[in-house]
Protein 1
Amino acid sequence: MVATESIRLRSYLFNYPVNRPRRLRSSVLIRNMVAETMLRPDDFVMPIFVREDINEPEPIKSLPGQYRWPLNDKLINFVDQLVSSGIRSIILFGIPEHKDEWGSSAYDEHGIIQRTIRFLKDSFEDRLVVMADVCLCEYTDHGHCGIVKKLPDGRYIVDNDSTIELYAKTAVTYAESGVDVVAPSGMMDGQVKAIREALDRAGFSDVVIMAYSAKYASSFYGPFRELQPVRLSLVIGVVTKWTRGMRMRPLRRSPWTLMRALT
Ligand SMILES: [Zn+2]
């Protein structure tokens, strides 16, 4: 596989002047004609952060132009503008009033996201695809994406298997509220299987799962940390989110990947 790729790369690099890639970049029309990817408003999903204890939109300093939204007509007006401009999909993130060790507001049938889904579906029906993030970090008082457990040796971990049960429970309450797509973001092993089985068991085989299958251990998430007014617990500071994001260093280095990265 790697050998074939290096032959392709060599023929690409050394066929000059027969091969002049600049020809296909020479004008806007030609670039558009050969573009492999075209982006339309339908391709975009707008993240929307809904906060339980506010009545007015609240600016997010680290993401200029973005707001935390209250669950009222102001949110409806904003989503209406999106739909009119051709953006027909949104993904919801919740900021609840009540947080606890187990993130119980995430799977409360009267939780902020469950109510928001019902509110938006009543207003927009099939004109809008409603997705909802499935994770516990917005809902736990320690800010981690799952249940924190103390090991016999005194270390703390985010416990994978008890956490995915709660993701599944959360996804079912979203489905009961009318969500179209659930989006697990906690990077727990087995999360998609657990959610799929729970949804199917509850009769929601049509609900789509969109997992953030590749989420990297990266500081690019910095601005998002301001979204939820949470401090990653100092008490359990030894637990790190870095163990769940994928490594930035790829397993196999393809010359094509490197070339794309460098051009
Ligand atoms: Zn999370």
Protein 2
Amino acid sequence: MPELAATPPVIAQAAHNAQPYDYRRFVAKIVDVYDSPLIRAYCKARFTIININILQMLSLCLRGKKRILDVGCGFGLFGCYFSSMYPEIEYCGYDLNARRVREANLAAERLGLRNARFNVGDARDLAIDEQYDAIMMVDLLHHIDDTAKSTLLGICASHLAADGRLIIKDVTTRPFFKIAFTWALDVVMTKSFDMWYWNEKRFYQKLDRHFDRIEMYPITDWLPYPHVIYLCENLADRDSDAMEPGATDRR
Ligand SMILES: C[S@@+](CC[C@H](N)C(=O)[O-])C[C@H]1O[C@@H](n2cnc3c(N)ncnc32)[C@H](O)[C@@H]1O
């Protein structure tokens, strides 16, 4: 982990969940370290779209995992959130956009986070050597084409520890009004019409090649995004009959 410049940390202590924590203030502290009003507005929007319920689901997916890779980390918003919440983790983010990566590292430095670092990298050609306990991708996959997406899933699977987890948050293709809204927003944000959305069936087919167990959690809220979280793992004891509720098993 590279040494960061000594800046007075904005978040000196983790927001422990032993007692209810002030989520809004915690998130506001993260958003406030970004200089640009535009980036702050974007970050507020992301914390609304990926709301506290989704973040807490992702937190549970990450439970007990130490070395975490975030592909398509953007401005490092959720990397800063998880690294602040869980000082014991080692968080490494990659994004194609060098400016976003710069802002992410600056945000981590200002927050006093020594357990988060962000690098420039292309998910279509991800060169990583390390093994990770969890790999997450939040709204990345629909930005890369189907062939690259399939390759990336294979790379992720091969860089996970035996008890590692792949955690994907992406959008599915129904209902129509939600995916139409999501598409329009993606076009505006990326200034491109190139989006490759997969529905749950497609994700399942591709993930099934690499993982014993794939859990899918569609998330319904008032916002027009057809969110789904996929939690993928390999079973340490493949002979075990134990299955958790909600899981599909390819045995
Ligand atoms: C919708 S944003 C999500 C960012 C972040 N995960 C979040 O949830 O706030 C998608 C991100 O994927 C990044 N991205 C798009 N194509 C990529 C690629 N080929 N390799 C790495 N990152 C990519 C974009 O730069 C952008 O930051």
